[in-house]
Design goal:
- By secondary structure, the protein is of the alpha/beta class.
- It is 40% helix and 21% strand.
- The strands form 3 sheets. A 5-stranded parallel sheet has the order 2-1-3-4-5, sandwiched between helices. A 4-stranded antiparallel sheet has the order 6-7-8-9, with helices on one face. It has a 3-stranded antiparallel sheet with strand order 10-12-11.
- It is elongated and about 55 Å long.
Length: 223
């Protein structure tokens, strides 16, 4: 079941109709508040969430989804009419899996939904360990030498990617694609900033994340 949240009745109806015609079950909501209420009893496969909503805007709704252990793993695609870089960054840093800029084609929406669903398929390996760092995907928990480390959603996803692929070098563009779910987002400094903060939060263990000059970053499993 795909949920479409948009206060524009025409857009919402077109989204739901297109999804049902392409083999999905779909349901529409006119605002984020009613959608959050429905989440208490039902969980969709994915949510297409407009940023400009009455009552609570899409970023605030997304933040509540990500803060709730029962819903934080639900994939969310943000839809925005603004299309500015800061709007995209704000939504993606809050935990959006992808974004659509209005006006978008309905088949582009379907294609992105399918891509996000493939990317968000559950990983069989829920607990990862490298040296003193342990990451539990199921509990969304990171510890260093047994001490809990509080990470943002994107910091957690970056660390999980590194720990799932020890020794593999990731370019900044690849990290943007894998973690933010986009091919390119203007400034690669977004990645550098997140890496810097992640290293700091990991303390001495942060040195495991190495800079490969002129290429990107990697995480070494042996030290």
């Amino acid at each position: 079941m795909i949920w479409c949240v948009d206060d524009d009745n025409t857009i919402r109806d077109i989204e739901v109709y297109t999804l049902t015609q392409t083999g999905f079950e779909a349901k529409g909501f006119a605002d984020g508040i009613s959608m959050l209420e429905a989440l208490k009893t039902e969980k969709p496969e994915l949510i297409v969430l407009d940023i400009m909503l009455p009552g609570k805007d899409g970023v605030e709704v997304l933040r509540e989804i990500r803060q709730n252990p029962e819903t934080r793993k639900i994939p969310v695609i943000m839809a925005t009419a603004k299309g500015t870089e800061m709007d995209k960054i704000q939504g993606l840093d809050t935990g959006a899996d992808d974004y659509l800029v209005k006006p978008f084609g309905v088949m582009e929406m379907v294609s992105r939904i399918k891509a996000v669903l493939r990317r968000c398929e559950p990983d069989e390996k829920e607990v990862l360990s490298i040296g003193e760092i342990t990451l539990s995907d199921k509990e969304h928990l990171v510890t260093v030498n047994g001490e809990k480390v509080v990470l943002t959603f994107k910091e957690f996803e970056i660390l999980k990617l590194f720990m799932s692929n020890p020794g593999i070098v990731f370019s900044r563009d690849k990290l943007l694609s894998e973690v933010w779910g986009i091919d390119y987002l203007g400034e690669s400094r977004t990645v550098d900033m997140h890496i810097k903060t992640l290293r700091h939060k990991l303390g001495d263990a942060g040195s495991r994340i190495e800079t490969v000059i002129g290429v990107g970053y990697k995480m070494e499993g042996k030290k």
